[in-house]
Amino acid sequence: xxxxxxxxxxxxxxxxxxxxxxxxxxxxxxxxxxxxxxxxxxxxxxxxxxxxxxxxxxxxxxxxxxxxxxxxxxxxxxxxxxxxxxxxxxxxxxxxxxxxxxxxxxxxxxxxxxxxxxxxxxxxxxxxxxxxxxxxxxxxxxxxxxxxxxxxxxxxxxxxxxxxxxxxxxxxxxxxxxxxxxxxxxxxxxxxxxxxxxxxxxxxxxxxxxxxxxxxxxxxxxxxxxxxxxxxxxxxxxxxxxxxxxxxxxxxxxxxxxxxxxxxxxxxxxxxxxxxxxxxxxxxxxxxxxxxxxxxxxxxxxxxxxxxxxxxxxxxxxxxxx
Amino acid sequence: xxxxxxxxxxxxxxxxxxxxxxxxxxxxxxxxxxxxxxxxxxxxxxxxxxxxxxxxxxxxxxxxxxxxxxxxxxxxxxxxxxxxxxxxxxxxxxxxxxxxxxxxxxxxxxxxxxxxxxxxxxxxxxxxxxxxxxxxxxxxxxxxxxxxxxxxxxxxxxxxxxxxxxxxxxxxxxxxxxxxxxxxxxxxxxxxxxxxxxxxxxxxxxxxxxxxxxxxxxxxxxxxxxxxxxxxxxxxxxxxxxxxxxxxxxxxxxxxxxxxxxxxxxxxxxxxxxxxxxxxxxxxxxxxxxxxxxxxxxxxxxxxxxxxxxxxxxxxxxxxxx
Amino acid sequence: xxxxxxxxxxxxxxxxxxxxxxxxxxxxxxxxxxxxxxxxxxxxxxxxxxxxxxxxxxxxxxxxxxxxxxxxxxxxxxxxxxxxxxxxxxxxxxxxxxxxxxxxxxxxxxxxxxxxxxxxxxxxxxxxxxxxxxxxxxxxxxxxxxxxxxxxxxxxxxxxxxxxxxxxxxxxxxxxxxxxxxxxxxxxxxxxxxxxxxxxxxxxxxxxxxxxxxxxxxxxxxxxxxxxxxxxxxxxxxxxxxxxxxxxxxxxxxxxxxxxxxxxxxxxxxxxxxxxxxxxxxxxxxxxxxxxxxxxxxxxxxxxxxxxxxxxxxxxxxxxxx
Amino acid sequence: xxxxxxxxxxxxxxxxxxxxxxxxxxxxxxxxxxxxxxxxxxxxxxxxxxxxxxxxxxxxxxxxxxxxxxxxxxxxxxxxxxxxxxxxxxxxxxxxxxxxxxxxxxxxxxxxxxxxxxxxxxxxxxxxxxxxxxxxxxxxxxxxxxxxxxxxxxxxxxxxxxxxxxxxxxxxxxxxxxxxxxxxxxxxxxxxxxxxxxxxxxxxxxxxxxxxxxxxxxxxxxxxxxxxxxxxxxxxxxxxxxxxxxxxxxxxxxxxxxxxxxxxxxxxxxxxxxxxxxxxxxxxxxxxxxxxxxxxxxxxxxxxxxxxxxxxxxxxxxxxxx
Amino acid sequence: xxxxxxxxxxxxxxxxxxxxxxxxxxxxxxxxxxxxxxxxxxxxxxxxxxxxxxxxxxxxxxxxxxxxxxxxxxxxxxxxxxxxxxxxxxxxxxxxxxxxxxxxxxxxxxxxxxxxxxxxxxxxxxxxxxxxxxxxxxxxxxxxxxxxxxxxxxxxxxxxxxxxxxxxxxxxxxxxxxxxxxxxxxxxxxxxxxxxxxxxxxxxxxxxxxxxxxxxxxxxxxxxxxxxxxxxxxxxxxxxxxxxxxxxxxxxxxxxxxxxxxxxxxxxxxxxxxxxxxxxxxxxxxxxxxxxxxxxxxxxxxxxxxxxxxxxxxxxxxxxxx
Amino acid sequence: xxxxxxxxxxxxxxxxxxxxxxxxxxxxxxxxxxxxxxxxxxxxxxxxxxxxxxxxxxxxxxxxxxxxxxxxxxxxxxxxxxxxxxxxxxxxxxxxxxxxxxxxxxxxxxxxxxxxxxxxxxxxxxxxxxxxxxxxxxxxxxxxxxxxxxxxxxxxxxxxxxxxxxxxxxxxxxxxxxxxxxxxxxxxxxxxxxxxxxxxxxxxxxxxxxxxxxxxxxxxxxxxxxxxxxxxxxxxxxxxxxxxxxxxxxxxxxxxxxxxxxxxxxxxxxxxxxxxxxxxxxxxxxxxxxxxxxxxxxxxxxxxxxxxxxxxxxxxxxxxxx
Lengths: 322, 322, 322, 322, 322, 322
What we know:
CATH architecture of the largest domain in chain A: Orthogonal Bundle
Oligomer: homohexamer
Number of domains of chain A: 2
Domain HD/PDEase (chains A, B, C, D, E, F): 163-298
Keywords (chains A, B, C, D, E, F): Hydrolase
Pfam family, one (chains A, B, C, D, E, F): HD
Structural class of chain A: alpha+beta
Organism (chains A, B, C, D, E, F): Alkaliphilus pronyensis
Largest interface: C-D, 42 and 42 residues
Protein name (chains A, B, C, D, E, F): HD domain-containing protein
Distance between the termini of chain A: 37 Å
Number of helices of chain A: 10
């Protein structure tokens, strides 16, 4: 039976043979107590991750030695159940050529529709009137080869927005929340425009800090320098290219990018020193925290308890009823 | 020359005599080095506070002994300047009968229009459909003698929303911010309704925690028990009066009120354990922090530096240019 | 050989068959490397917990699917030793009817004698003279259906007083310590009476926060609202029922309950604002910390080192010699 | 009119001349705006401190140049009132010979009766049976020239027990609280004896750390090394003089002294690693905190508010009603 | 009597008239109680600061209105003494033309000899062999208009190295300490060279963050962006100009600059992730802390106590004897 | 094939039989899933640690029951590879008599040459001129039976300098770093000499706090009292034996020993209150941190990633390239 997405495998499939296409997210060679080698894998596609075993390592040694992380494969496997969770016993496994499959279809992706997200970007871009600010956004986001990356990169390594278009979705959330506050509190036109520009750019350098999906994790540059510095650096260099860029705008936008983590202990080298920068900071946390709770609760949906386990970045468990 | 509001006094009035009506916000009897008693006063109206001196204490001893804090008075005074700030030398001072003057016109007041704020309340109330939740809001806010207090009390003692209608304005801001997040993240109808109810009620007990304006400061009950406990207590008792109130709604709304400060060290005895409660918490900080920066920057407007002084609750100075 | 209490099993029983009655505290189905299912259990009675295995899961599948946590069972088992600790290989296992066995005899219980504890309660009750305070204690503890729960519930989920009568024993310790301080420091009669009342009531709501033994863990209400809020809430409602209850006593007793964890970061929404409340707070820690060290040292008694392992809530290991 | 104690001066004395004997606690030469020198003094006796002025510095220049801190003087002065507080305008001031006055009668003193405190010491001493422990107490406290100092020194520089016999009173409180806990929790005889010895010795080195009253403040040795090190050092040396001193007792008693502040950040170089040491630590805080609240509330008695000011070491204000 | 440096004024000058040249570090117009305006000044030169008064403000109103901060003036004044400190009563005060006086001679300056400091820079520069690193130092420090600023700017606003050549002296200290560690621990040639380059550049951006002496305080750019970001930004741009710059060297040097405060809470947006970066961090603290203690102790030299006051950044007082 | 050091075993030896001599660092009896007992060992010599298995426990039960930790053994074993790491399958294992092997050759040892380290000690000793200080060093380090221990003990239990001569190497590093700072900052002769003495003595009591190698871990005295107290105690007693020891030197040296961890929360009961003590503190951290990074990076050398794992005491991973 061909399974379209891993999430479609359910208890009814137990003891049946299924076929599926997935990425090898992780793989380890292990030893049974009787000293026989087997392969312990994690498979994933856009819908979920699942554990799998392959018991005859010795027969397919060459194949597994050549396997890379994030390699797409096709499998035939028996569905089993172990301590309440489904797992697969792989019978056949083969490489798939990159051209035969869209890797993106095997990787977690925002459930927001991409075209409407791009329209959202345009909507906020249009609210910026002053030419030097428009030019800054053009150069950093729209008119350059950055656009593709900006629209596909994740916004985090784990916990929240760690999927295709994650950065784009996060930026739109931040723009929306920040804009609501700004209109409610009747910020001036200049403040409003700067706030929009800062929201666009605050996490921009995540396209340098993270590896390109389906790979996950930090680049060396990302680990050593971080997106806060990299983003302010790129923005300052772009500003310097724009003739007559207003000096106060420059200082305020850069301070907003540097300060968007809100406190020194969270990695901002300076504190946010304008009301725009403080709004950006709070909108950023709001977006990250809410998404991390929602995605965590989705993961914990199957389990029976009335509370989830503890979500480490929130420091508490969550109530699942209601 | 009759001055309508204290904020209208300016450098052009120096050495002139003005007349005005104000509240006596503070008063101390002091001694000159030559051991003569004088009176050091702070006067205030809705527009600002100003220092004043009255040099002949001995002649008006009885009058000043009888003066209470927040007493409205009419004065004649010479305008002076001392270390860059304006101050008054009072020549004549008399009591005003409470009936001759609207004390509210002498007390700081929200610059949001009251009727449109009340419409705002109604707007969000109408989004709540389930009857037991509507009844809860009716009893706590609309259909009771609470309504008047809810619409006039301040939301803080200092820093932010510490003025007439401050609680009302703050609740509307929180409702607006929280609602934007909830629709953006597609919360369920039940979550949305609970979030609205929690936002309405989270600071409700400030009508018990604070004294009624123009008096400021905590009631004894407020100091000893705090609005977090008092609000959850009153809400739970009201819920118990409503037949068939959903149990999950009860736990989630109470947890939201108890947890809205977000962390134990900020006075929440339990952490927010639903996504609604976390949204409420962040919307609450957003409202408080942004208002405290804006009102602080207004205070610092006159001064010449490019940065304000340090705003204690934010831990930093703010940039005034741009 | 019939074993009366699990603690009586010792190294002399190794390789012998024993019979015993115990609760199933925990149970997991696991897989041997050869993919055979077995059952990994934790058994407990009032005296201790012990690990046990049952190797033929397939033969008793139905039995184990029906097993609940805290189910009393009778077993026949071979005693073994694994990495220095005793463990059981179960040969036979059967349900026991609840009527055949007193579950309490299988659950950890205070080693203080229950009747003398009840006399202790009475002793301190008699020190309270003012009628409204006596009525408060009557309603909350003595004259209601609360009394049974108050006398049997645990005072914690783990670490200290987490056994039958644990709350009662803890309250008596707190009363005793607080009373010693109050007499030493010559507190007034009013202060003394309030301190006694606060000590009686400070953890009262643990009868709502915890499940009833032998079940352990929090109720949903307990997780979401916590015993600090619940206790102050119930106390305030009871006070409101008592005509002419002194207002200062009300505020002080409620502040004492709300503040008994001593610091905001430990879950008190307000700080203790009277000397009575501070004494209560310190007596509460004294009772909890001392009991947690003593019970931890008892657990570690068998091991050979001169120090225990680290006790997590104290942050240090303890010296076992001397 | 001769005033026996400064606390007896009241509003009825305003504008009258009083005579009194007091210590000069502090003195500064100041300048009036008209550039005339005057003397600003703080006078104190056992009952309270009071501000005083002497306006003709030039006439008594030699006298004031010779005045030392804690010098006893006799004064004639006019009682005045300034911003609600009483103050003295000194007309005559003269030295008193140390032999004419008991300086102790001019210094704050424990209100516990000295002979009954000494009996208290004896009472707990008698509970220690094992000879090497008795010898340790004999050498450190009873049989040496330490006894006088131990019975007269303060236990702190400010906040609590900062008066004659303060150390003695504090040690008795700690003994009493610790003993109550130890009997309640049925500690072994050996634990009990060690706990008593540790309570006797924990603050012993305050007789080295502080200056002798009426002087206040730290000795150089006290500032540089602290009573925690000095006390453990002296105790270890005394133990080494006692033949056959049990080694576990040695380690446990020294750990108790070193650990009695309970946490590294409060100056204990090691944590308390026995139950005795933890009891000592909590009894020590209980004694210090309760005394600091009580003495602070006494100071604040006169003021009209329902709350005291904030007590810095407790981080909160206290409720004065009830 | 002409006084060469303010530090030369001593008690023998009291009541004499002196002449001196100094900068006006601070100035306030104040009111005597009799409502007469006077001027309260702080004068400074390289040797110290001293308080001064000018009593006839009205006569020299125009002069004082025109006075700027850090204006050099010549004065005639009577030396007085007030509460143990010397102060001046100014009789005559006049502007000095900037050309008549070297402002640097009136500003605090490093007591290290400037030429030997420049030799020190050269000494460490010569230890760097690899051309791309030499070029980086050439462009950032030696071959550009930065050299003059680098050699004259302060390294802090207060506490340590807050004087002419302060940055230069601090960098030399850091180089010396770091080099000692590197040779002791036998770092590789590559590590050593990178460490030297990082030490040269770590505080480089203080020439952008601070105002040019004799002005003190932050530039707007400095307050909003900070020297950590600015320094890494300038370094990265310079590196990009150098062909074939080794990529690992780039990441490590930039990480060293970004991480030199050692912890996020001290303003480093990333942690130091190489041994070179950690050595730099510790050498930087060593230099700052030691200098701040030494300069603080010099300030406190005159006072009689055996301890200084508390040095805020060290959290303690220091022992002056020995 | 006889292997000289465990570090010489490499992938070329896989499936071959090797012979070696090593210490048994750790040993556990475990069960295969088929319930057969085997032995899981960690072997170590001066060069590295390696995992080993012995599968026939039952045949050599007596031998393994008698094995102590740090026992030297000779083995014959087959080299295997498991999850990328080498491990041994032991075929033969026998005790070695202590006289046949130098245990030190099997224990990690400083790679600094011992004779040159001893010369280093002498070098700094010779810089101390004043006789009472020389006598102190003579008694504490050179002229007593302490010398051997001082030169062989480790300076830590893990992380840094946890090897033979570790204390000696650490003290020399601290002396060198501190001396560089002292000469750079032109400390007085007296300060310099005290700093050298303090550096010699600061960790002296580690010879009491740790067990003698090859045993590792704390003595009971070390756990209960700590090297900070023990070191200051021994130093004070030695000072008291030296006639005419300068009192300021005494206080400063003892404060330096007590304060060398720099902050209360790191176990110093008093803060460093002289510039010498602060230099000592920073030199101590510099030595410990740098050594812990270098030794950690050596351990992680084999692995392929560009970053190490996280080093717990530094809170970060380290970059391995460059």
